[in-house]
Amino acid sequence: MEALTLLNNVYGAMHPEIAQCLRMLARLSYIMGDYGEAMAYQQKAVFMSERVNGIDHPYTITEYIHLALYCYANNQITTALKLLYRARYLAVLICGENHPEIALLDSNISLILHAVQEYDLSLRFLEKALALNIKFYGPKSLKVAVSYHLVARTQSCMGDFRSALSNERETYAIYKQQFGEKHEKTQESSDCLKHLTHQAVVLQKKMNEIYTGKTGATLPPIQIHPPSMGSVLDMLNVINGILYVQISQQDLENFKAEVEKRSETLDLAKPSTEQECTS
């Protein structure tokens, strides 16, 4: 807030740096859990960037993406989708379809479509994002691993477990190579593979019974867990680079002790420095 006040005093009411400062305030409010205040700050950042940078400026497109995230966090799903579609349209005009920013936008759009159970359209955006991420970051990138997982999750919701298994295996292979078998991400992917395998086996077994003409054989209900707002928001945070670091109370105490120790060391060093200057 102090920085915002200083920028207003120096530059006046409208300036590109003030828009960036408002974006940072919005991000801080979001991380602190105040989604309403985050959206209010980000709306100001959008309005200012539109006026000082222009509607088709890359900074303005970035502001739209941030505002869409905060709108979704405030349950304004339709508004979030409109903002992302607008940002994508402008980004395509500026840099074309083949650009890393398009991959980010497509991932954001697909996740919100997934949240409202528009799986077919969501999958189309995800497959486009996956192809772009492979092209720009390489087949073993963590971004590619996340894209494979999102594709697999959407395909499982559509009942296409064979394709979902294939894509989730790609995610598991990347995590295993990058982090090792014991890492949390690798374990999560392994659990997902087990669930998809079980679903695929049950479905195939029932399909075989139907083909052989077994009486009373019917397709089993597909165990699809509708996406929750919280789970989708967590994935939106991941792809937009918002990571929450969990710090224990003990770690905080250790950090405070280290700061106090360094402060005392500096205080002890000051008198000797002053004596040297005097002599």
UniProtKB/TrEMBL annotation:
Cellular component, GO annotation: cytoplasm
Keyword Cytoplasm: yes
Keywords from the UniProt entry: Cytoplasm
Top-rank taxon: Eukaryota
GO terms, molecular function: mRNA binding
Protein name: Clustered mitochondria protein
Pfam families recorded: TPR_10 (PF13374), TPR_12 (PF13424)
Listed InterPro entries: CLU_prot, TPR-like_helical_dom_sf
A biological process from GO: intracellular distribution of mitochondria
Keyword Secreted listed: no
Segments crossing the lipid bilayer: none
